C-alpha cells in the first residue's frame, strides 16, 4: 500500500477499511448511474419535480463517493472507482435501461437506495468494531444522506 496518513491504525485495519470503502464506493457509483438513468428517461405525472430532484440526489451521491474515495487514499490505499471496477464489484442490482414510467423508476430507485443504505450500515458497524471511528463516522454521514434521499424519492410514489 502507498503512504498512509493515519498513525493510530495498524496495517491490517487500514487494509480492511480500504476494502470496505472501495466496496461501498462501487455501490455508490452504480447507484449514482441508476439515478441518472432514471433522470434521463422518466415520464409521467410529477416529471419535472422528480427530474430535478434526481439531479440533486446524484450530486449528493457523488459527494459521498468522494468522501469514501479520499478516505481510502488517506488510509494508504487506492480509490477504485473506474467503470470497469464498478461493473465487476458493485452488488447493486442492474438498473432497467428501457423504462420510462415514473412510478417504476421511483420503486426501482427506492429498492436500490434501501440496499446500498444497508450495505453502508454494515460497513459502519465493521469500521466501529475495527476501531476506526473516523471511517465509521464517514459511513454514518453517507448513511444519513442515503436514507434521506430514499425518503425524498419514495415519497413521490
From TrEMBL:
One of its GO terms (molecular function) is DNA binding. It comes from the Bacteria. Pfam families: Ferritin (PF00210). Keywords: DNA-binding. Signal peptide: none annotated. Residues 19-155 form the Ferritin/DPS domain. SUPFAM superfamilies: Ferritin-like (SSF47240). InterPro entries: DPS_DNA-bd (IPR002177), DPS_DNA-bd_CS (IPR023188), Ferritin-like (IPR012347), Ferritin-like_SF (IPR009078), Ferritin_DPS_dom (IPR008331). Belongs to the Dps family. This is Starvation-inducible DNA-binding protein. It comes from Puniceibacterium sediminis.
